[in-house]
């Protein structure tokens, strides 16, 4: 009570403003998604998207979102862990500092820059090497993994740095090397943070719009192979919102937004639950 009474008024007002803003956004999306379910009904949860024929199925987009996000997460998490191992066990001091600086810079690069560069660099490479148009699950997942790597790597790095600092003297007294300390002591002790970083990366990948729009191909079909052109839920919202107003196609946007909101909220709640446990236990 004493601390609460000493809180400056402007801080309290800021907290209330942000809370009210987030609550209004959540309420708007949930209410509109419920309305979209009532209006669209069973037609939304089918496999066919053909607005001219009255079919508004978004299930292939849900599948595409999950496949692209999990693929990006699998690759990005491994790269992030490799970066952390390099910084805290296997790399030199100069190279480690350079890598950390690069990761911090990458967090400020706009998503559209990754997408724009990939259209001219990665897509032709995939098209010439593996076939297809190059606009596919593989291209989107590769670039999304690049996008989420700095977020996950820096999250892992902060936990690993604290744990390594706390056990550095004990490791030195036992005569084990820095790399051995990292592999056998520090990383197992940071298991919760490593898993929490994965959830953070998944939420970031599932919520990105620009890269799926520019690289996934935007064809409404199931992702049956890495070279399949697909449309993610975020890309669907961006594309339909810019062309349609009203009708079941429009209502599908709110349902897609509600599903993305649930995915993001679920990942964040799970992240907070894992992070809220005793670190390293």
Task: Tell me the layout of helices and strands.
Elements: H1 2-6, H2 9-40, E1 49-50, E2 55-56, H3 59-90, H4 93-106, H5 111-130, H6 137-174, H7 178-189, H8 191-207, H9 210-215, H10 233-241, H11 247-276
Antiparallel strand pairs: 1-2
Helix pairs in contact: 2-11, 3-4, 3-6, 3-7, 3-8, 4-6, 5-6, 6-7, 6-8, 8-11, 10-11
> Strand order of the main beta sheet, please?
1-2
Which ranges are low-confidence, i.e. pLDDT below 50, for 5 or more consecutive residues?
none
Q: What is the CATH-assigned architecture?
A: Orthogonal Bundle
Q: State the name of the first-level CATH class.
A: Mainly Alpha
Total strand segments: 2
β-strand amount:
under 5%
Radius of gyration: 22 Å
Mean pLDDT figure: 84
**Secondary structure tally, helices:** 11
Summarize the biggest pleated sheet.
2 strands, antiparallel
CATH third-level topology? MetI-like fold
Q: Give the termini separation.
A: 32 Å
Helical content class: over 70%
Structural notes for this entry:
This protein is mainly α. The chain is built from 11 helices and 2 strands. The chain has a two-stranded antiparallel ribbon. The longest helix is centred in the middle third of the chain and has 38 residues. The protein starts with a helix and ends in a 5-residue tail after the last helix. The mean pLDDT is 84.
